[in-house]
Amino acid sequence: MAASSKLLLLKSRTVDDKYATYHERSNNNTSCNLHFLKVIDHVAENIEEMTEFLCLSNNLSEISALIITSQRAVESLVKIISRIRNDWVVDTILAKPIFVVGPQTASMLSNHGFSDIRGEDSGNANELVKVILQDDLISHIQAEANQSNYLLFLTGRIRKDIIPTKLGENGVKFIEKIVYRTIETSNTLEKFQNLELSSKTNDWVVFFSTQGVDLIIDQIKQNALHENDQLKIASIGPTTSEALQKKGVICHVVTPKPNPSALFDAIFEYEERNCQQAKKFDCLCN
Fold it and tell me: Residues in domain Tetrapyrrole biosynthesis uroporphyrinogen III synthase (predicted)?
C-alpha cells in the first residue's frame, strides 16, 4: 500500500472538475492521491411533458420562480429549453428568478443564459429555504393570498423532504416536477475495494449523498467492526451527514457549503486538531 494518504470523492470526475482543480492548484508538491468513484448515473425524465407544460402561456405566467438544487436538474432543464422553438417562451423562462443551493449549479445556469439567480451561497437545503422565505416575491404567492402564482421545483425522483416540507409549513405554493432519476453505477463496491483504503494511511472517504452507496457503507462498517479499521468520513453538507448517521456512519467532518474550499479546509482543520495524525496526512499541506 502506498505510504501517502488517499482522498476518495464518491462522485464522477467532470470536465474541469472544481475539486480536482482546487486540489491540483493547492497541492502541487504533495503526495496525496485524489480519487473519484462514480456511484450513480442520471437519466432525464419527463422532458417532453415538461416542454409542453412550459410552452403553455398560462403555466408560464403563473410561475413566479424556479427552484433547482442539483446540477442534474439543470441538465434536464437545458434539454427542455433546447426543444422549445418559441423565442419568447425561452426568453421568459431565462428571465425567471431561480433559487439554487450552490455555486456550481448557479454557474451552470448562468452559462445557459439565466440571469436572476438567487441563493447560490446558501450551501444546503435548510439555508436555501430561509433565503426563499425571506425573498420579496414570496408575499405574492402565499397560499392565503388566493393568488395563482407558485414556485416550480424541478427535482429528481429521489429527493429530500426539506424544501417541500418547509414551503408547505409556511404557506408557500409550489408545484414539484420530476425531471430526472438516478440509477446505481455497476461494480462500485469492487472499485472501492480495489483502492485498498485504510485508516493506517489516514485515508478519507467523502460522501456527496447517500444514493448508490449502500454497499460501500456496509463495507466501511464491516471494516471498522471486524478489522478495527475506521476510515475518516467527510460529508458534503448536514443533510447527507444526517442520512449517513441513520445508516450507522458517523462523519468526522461536515462541510458547511458544497464547494472544494469548504471541504479541503474542513479536513485540514480536523487534521490540525488531531496533530498526531496530521503528520501522516499530507494531502492539504501547501
Answer: 40-264
**What does the alpha-carbon distance between residue 159 and residue 181 come to, in Å, rounded to a whole number?**
10
Residue 239 domain-assigned? yes
The b-or-e profile of 8-30 (16+ CB within 10 A means b, else e) is bbbbeeeeebebeebbeebbeeb
pLDDT of amino acid 81: 97
- Residue 73 CB contacts under 8 Å (≥ 6 apart), including other chains: 154, 155, 156, 179, 180
**One-letter amino acid for residue 265 of the chain:** D
The string of pLDDT tens digits covering residues 22-49 is 988 876 445 578 999 999 888 999 999 9
CA 274 vs CA 30, 92, 267, 279: distances in Å: 19, 53, 11, 9
Handedness of CA 94, 99, 105, 110 (dihedral sign): positive
Residue 151's nearest CA partner among 160, 159, 166, 83 is 166
Residue 284 lies in a domain: no
Contacts of 217 (CB under 8 A, 6+ apart): 210, 244, 247, 248, 249
Say if 285 falls within a structural domain. Answer: no
Range of the domain at 213: 6-39+189-278
Residue 286 lies in a domain: no
- Which regions of 15-130 does DSSP assign to beta strands (E)? 33-36, 40-44, 63-68, 98-100, 117-118
